[in-house]
Amino acid sequence: MKEDRIHGLKLGADDYITKPFSIEELILKIEVFLRRKYVTVSVNDQYKIGLYNFDYRNLTLSLQSDHRSLTQKEADLLKMLLDHKNNVVKRSLILEKLWGEDDYFLGRSMDVFISRLRKYLSGDDKIKLDNIHGVGFKLIIEN
Questions:
Q1: Contact by Cβ (8 Å): 27, 34
Q2: How far apart are CA 52 and CA 122, in angstroms?
Q3: Of residues 18 and 69, more confidently modeled
């Protein structure tokens, strides 16, 4: 029913498929979804974050002549937040994608990484890494 499709899209679905459907149609929809999901924002994995330059491939975050080396996990977390900048990223999504599971103790570990990123990005007042209580985090970059 139309209402069911609308309800599903409002809950966060990106697409739907109605019965009956062909396997070929299903495979094509999956391929489109995978292409959309894994497209990187930056060809060279170089990002401009306010006054900072972030080189994901080389795990560096730079502000003028100050260059900071990041751990792989810090870089992965920052990239994920950048890929969703100005939008809330759910804690559970971050934990599942970067830590492999949504677990209380891993969540505490993630909070430490969030604190580190806040500290690293503190040199630019136009960058905020907000905690959305009970939901997740939001990287806000003002223009």
A1: no
A2: 10
A3: 69
In the chain, where does the domain assigned CATH 1.10.10.10 lie?
A: 71-141
Helix (H) or strand (E) holding 126: none
Tokens of 12: 């966060």
Tokens, residue 41: 């924002």
Q: What is the overall mean pLDDT for the chain?
A: 87
Q: Does the 71-141 domain belong in CATH 1.10.10.10?
A: yes
Tell me how far apart the alpha carbons of residues 63 and 27 are, in angstroms, rounded to a whole number: 45
State the pTM of this model.
0.69
Rounded to the nearest angstrom, the gap between the alpha carbon of residue 124 and the centroid of all alpha carbons in its chain is 20
Enclosing H/E stretch for 75: helix 72-83
pLDDT number for residue 40: 40
